[in-house]
Amino acid sequence: MAAISKDEMMVCYMSSLIQTGDFVVQGMGTPLVFSAFLLAKETHAREVQFMYTVGNTISEHTESLSITYLEQLTVEGCLKKVKMTEMHCDIVPSLKVKEFIRPAQVDRFGNCNNVVIGDYAKPVIRLPGAGGITDVAAFNPNFHLYVTRHSRQTLVDQVDFCSSVGYGERAEELNRMGIRARGPQKLITDSCVFRFENEGAVLEAIFHGETIENIRENTGFPFDLSENGIIQIEPPSEEQLRILREKIDPLGIRQLELLTGIQRIQKLEHILLEEDKRRRGSA
Amino acid sequence: MTSKRMSIEQAVKPIKDGQTLGVGGMLIYRRPTALILELIKQGKWNLTALGWTLGYETDLLIGAKAVSHVRTSFFSLEIFGLPPAYRKAVEKDAIKITEETETTLGIGIRAAAQGVGFMPGRTLLGSDILTVRKDIKRIECPYTGEIYPAIPAIRPEVTFIHALAADENGNAILGANLCIDVELAQLSTYTIVSAEKIVPRGSLPSGQVDIIGASVDAVVEVQGGSWPTSCYPDYPLDGLELVRYLKTMKSHSFDEYLLELESRKRSFLLKMDEEVNDGSYLER
């Protein structure tokens, strides 16, 4: 069996945070998260209900990952179609759905940035925007953050622009509103897992082969070590890897979240051509 | 009842420079690309694009310099990444952005529908969105004393929606990705629905209509009207066309991309016809 990659370690860990009966949001452009949900459903959490941002549906139907047919997957066999206003302004605040969110930058309090890198008025990189993360972070106690590259560029001392609020000073105004049970729970990287407390990030687990020293070197914010000791996360089992590689995501769509620039475009093209070939083959 | 059916040229003509355009569809799905291309052809400019999410279709408008202001929570080509024309325009300071979140949009259009100036929301406090959105003030709840941001009402002036099927009155079926199309159509003073096919009055399936005719002013038949974004279940996303867009924007220019787009759409329609005929189109 091929060596275990970082995306596979992340997917398996994230899937362990899903329990049967969970109501989860599958957001925009996050196949790594979708892989984790599907792996949980295939192994230990048979009953998972999805809110699909692509398709705008509530569904219990799943299939293997696809780019071309993602919309079809989310719509066919769905329980209900919803408008985005209904999804975001009614369902999400009422039902506190479980979600994994990927910020471009995050600080030790879980404040996130998905708006700009650099100065807002003259950005180095314009990012997609806050989406619904600002809102979810303000009322949902049931979500986690993840980043696919553990580095000082991503895990920063100060976010360039705070598009969603975690804990600490920035959360004071929300706290005064009486909304205390909120904010991100964990931050999962390709090296380790932090949890958030009011005083900041606490390292609680590391992936196989990682060291605390290495993590400190690549983290732009200070953090404490968990008082209960640091958990060594077990590598994925052969069974988990087989399901992920053969059934859930044979084309490696989840890996797009780890790629940038021309490498990403090439991978996209490869996947799309492969999907087209398979479709023609089945016709 | 009089028919609202007209040509695409006629439908787009009344749109004035500087108006706020509500963009239907979601992410890279069922976006009104044919109407957008007609807008570019007619040389409209200085428009504001308003959408829950904006993507390929609005990136075309920015490439053509038709849009000078965007209002959205998320401007992205989804898994295909950052939209190149938008990114370039922002980095050259050539476009104004009103930073939105899903809640500022959702509550803003609900306030507009109610005819009130704002509605409160449980969001934004502590974030830099409130720093850059200087128009958003805080308000004290008269019942609990809590402080909320007062989300201002938002109203598009014109709206473009692509539908699966519509009748001549504008009643329309959207298929999937309802997004905020219903609200955009209802709030606009002028709404155009383009549809893959226009069907006789009374033949839309009962109880399945998404857009009501009373909210529509013009109806246009356009086959492939949301290509290369999808129109479920008629055709899926054409991801390879989006890859071609990204590549052309890297190595050539927007104008060169636009120049070839019409002929590529023709080949898409031909290919679709063939595959619909041999039954292979939506096979997976």
Automatic annotation (TrEMBL), chain B:
Keywords: Transferase. Pfam families: CoA_trans. InterPro entries: CoA_trans_fam_I, NagB/RpiA_transferase-like. One of its GO terms (molecular function) is CoA-transferase activity. Belongs to the 3-oxoacid CoA-transferase subunit B family. This is CoA transferase subunit A.
